[in-house]
Amino acid sequence: MKLRSLSCLAVILSLATIPAAAQSHKTQAPSPPIEPGPYIIVDAHTGEALLQGNAGAPWYPASLTKLMTIYVVFQELKAGNLTLQTPIVFSPYAVSTIPTKLGLAAGQSVTVEQGLEALIAHSANDVAVAFAERISGSEPAFGDRMTKTAISLGMTSTTFGNADGLPNPDNKTTARDLTLLAMALVRDFPDYYGYFRTRYMTFGKRRIGPGVRFVTMYAPYADGLKTGYTCASGYNLVGSAVRDGRRLIGVALGFRRGDQRDEFLVKLFDEAFQLQPNADRPKVWELQNEAGEPTVVFPEDNCPGNRRAARRAVVSSAPKQPAAAAAR
Fold first, then answer.
1. What does pTM read for this prediction?
2. Which DSSP symbol is given to 159?
3. What's the CA gap between 117 and 200, in Å, rounded?
4. Cα distance between residue 195 and residue 175, in whole Å
């Protein structure tokens, strides 16, 4: 706590010379120094953008896609079309999905509650596809619903082609848009948001987890949400934290290591919680998204994820993406 107090004091002194508008700057993270991708910290109640850098830059969402999958599942629960005990049956197509996955056989099922826990604690791709087929009949149809839902939330540069976040040319978003989605999850589903605190789940004799490392790193303030990784997108994180009754939402994209991503967002939250409200700062929905194609962090021929996925590749005749692109 003494070290954190000294760090906060240094942040306050440095911010005294920065304009009141949303600061866009390099934040020092783990050694060696890193160059962050797009990032943003927003007050969840007011929408005020406290800190941001290139928040409108196009990006591949990787498994952050599952935040929208979960949003749609929450919609179905709220509408009464699903209950927490509704069985979600795995089709051969869902089973064919590459890891990370729960690993059930075709015809087996999980409950909606187990499925939500598996998405958050394990980022299970097969569970995401099983939800898509149960709700919309097919994954492409579910992708259409996800995109329409994104539009309704003001996510003006976000489209989805699948439910799991595996590489797909239709999967595109921005840090700005992901912030709006996280804010909507908190706002629209207070009865279900607690699932984002899931660290472990028990499934049969298996203990699955540990979920989002950021939640442990930034305890007791952090309470969710989700990580994501593919070769093209790098390591990404959407997080939420509550301190002194004030909730902030943070997004950090495009890191080359998971520990860099986590520590960077923790540092941003510490800085942002020291900032007082200021009407001159823009709201997140006032930030402009940029045109163009997403940045590629790791080319396919130079991607550490390729080597990991190759060791656990699943052979499938279904039209899914290559094992090298596994979303986590």
1. 0.84
2. B
3. 8
4. 22
